Amino acid sequence: MQNKKENLPINQEMTIQSIGEVVKRIKEEEDPIELNHYRKLIKKNVPLSIRSYFSAYLLKQSLAANIGNKGNKFTRLFISIGKTRRIFPKDLIDLFTTKLNLTKNQIGVVKVLDNYSFLEISSGVAERAISALSGFNYKGRRISVNYARKKNDSSSSAS
Fold it and tell me: Is the domain covering 74-149 a CATH 3.90.1150.10 domain?
């Protein structure tokens, strides 16, 4: 088997950036208990000698799926619930997909902070998500869902 680095199908810089984003998400957003469960499954079912190929294959599949989603326009939503209510990205994805009958391709990046969260959703269903889920009672708290302000909006209001 020969390596042909010059014929890689994906831009190397984009791949490095994606790997950095995955590492960041693992550290900031993911549930360690759930990740340990997957880790144990991999340890039991994937031989040690091919685990690095296994992770490379998963990365390749993930990048191919993300390239297919680039055509979707996403709108960023603010959700008034976060980590203090034991909310994880998976919970928000499940909530939006079940209540709005969406596919996972219609949901982009989910960022869960301490007291609130941000979720990117296909622009075509953003208004429907806001009207359907604003005021919805989730895990003992009434949540509000609104369009997220742009990052530079908050800095201009400080002056």
Answer: no
